[in-house]
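Here is the promised in-class demo. Please do not try to memorize the tokens; focus on the logic of going from shape to residues.
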């Protein structure tokens, strides 16, 4: 069963849920690149669907639910931090027996957890990909309208599901893109606006139930509880990774991909400039992309992730140095 129990020095143990891909494979996956996917605030593992569909073709992929989200538990007794959430990820890696050659990919809050995870276990890391995230809230805050929409999307300002959905769309995607059209496989090939396509895609992903849980009669996990959302938000607001803390990863020569969208109003692109400086690498910016770039520009994102994983595999076989 893909749950791992995590114990705290104070408080009751809790479980972290994870899912691996490809599912029900008869292939020996031990020689494939090992990838762990870390989702953002309030999101579940199913939101990585565009990346899982691509990466599972050549990687052994693990997508986990952060504490308080999806099927994972809600630990009590400690304030939630990105560092402690990274320890949840370490527990998952240990449970899988992944001790080396690990490719870490995180978006938004998941990118913050990814930073802490890579810093915590640098010798186990083959590559890192940091998408639409920041190293500290001190450097670049969201736009005012994004903050308002964030509060709406989380249910703090409204409980109207339709308004919450609209706010989430505005947070993640530029208006111009939402108004564009496409032939949607979710609407029997009909031409629909991107907003309608994404609405249905999000609904379907929220209703996704892993096969082994469905067999037990479990249903969709439901929305994240407002208290858990607040605890995750406080972890985001207190996240801080300095350039000095990234020194060992730089010395090891771990490949780091820093990726942002030029129109991200929630985690503005300047944050990626700061992170890139921390790791002494460059920023990849997707033109006209918003915070939800993993959907809006899925093909471009997948291509960059694949390239970084390939660089990480080369690094893992021939590391620049061993500390």
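The designed amino acids, position by position:
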């Amino acid at each position: 069963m893909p749950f791992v129990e995590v114990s705290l020095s104070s408080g009751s143990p809790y479980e972290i849920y994870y899912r691996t891909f490809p599912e029900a494979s008869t292939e020996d996956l031990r020689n494939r690149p090992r990838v762990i996917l870390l989702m953002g605030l309030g999101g579940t593992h199913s939101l990585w669907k565009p990346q899982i569909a691509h990466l599972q073709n050549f990687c052994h992929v693990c997508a986990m639910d952060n504490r308080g989200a999806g099927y994972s538990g809600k630990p009590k007794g400690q304030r939630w931090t990105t560092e402690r959430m990274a320890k949840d990820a370490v527990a998952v890696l240990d449970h899988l027996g992944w001790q080396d050659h690990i490719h870490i990919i995180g978006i938004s809050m998941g990118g913050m957890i990814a930073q802490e995870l890579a810093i915590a276990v640098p010798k186990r890391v083959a590559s890192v990909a940091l998408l639409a995230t920041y190293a500290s809230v001190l450097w670049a805050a969201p736009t005012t309208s994004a903050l308002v929409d964030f509060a709406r999307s989380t249910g703090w300002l409204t409980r109207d599901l339709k308004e919450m959905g609209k706010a989430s769309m505005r947070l993640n995607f530029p208006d111009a893109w939402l108004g564009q059209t496409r032939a949607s496989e979710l609407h029997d090939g009909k031409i629909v606006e991107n907003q309608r396509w994404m609405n249905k895609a999000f609904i379907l992903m929220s209703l996704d139930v892993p096969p082994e849980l469905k067999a037990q009669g479990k249903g969709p996990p439901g929305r994240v509880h407002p208290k858990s959302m607040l605890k995750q938000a406080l972890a985001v607001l207190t996240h801080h990774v300095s350039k000095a803390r990234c020194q060992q990863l730089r010395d090891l020569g771990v490949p780091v991909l820093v990726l942002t969208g030029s129109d991200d109003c929630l985690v503005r692109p300047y944050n990626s400039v700061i992170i890139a400086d921390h790791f002494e690498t460059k920023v990849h910016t997707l033109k006209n992309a918003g915070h939800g770039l993993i959907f809006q520009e899925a093909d471009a994102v997948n291509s960059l992730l694949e390239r970084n994983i390939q660089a990480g595999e080369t690094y893992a076989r021939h590391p620049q140095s061993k500390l």
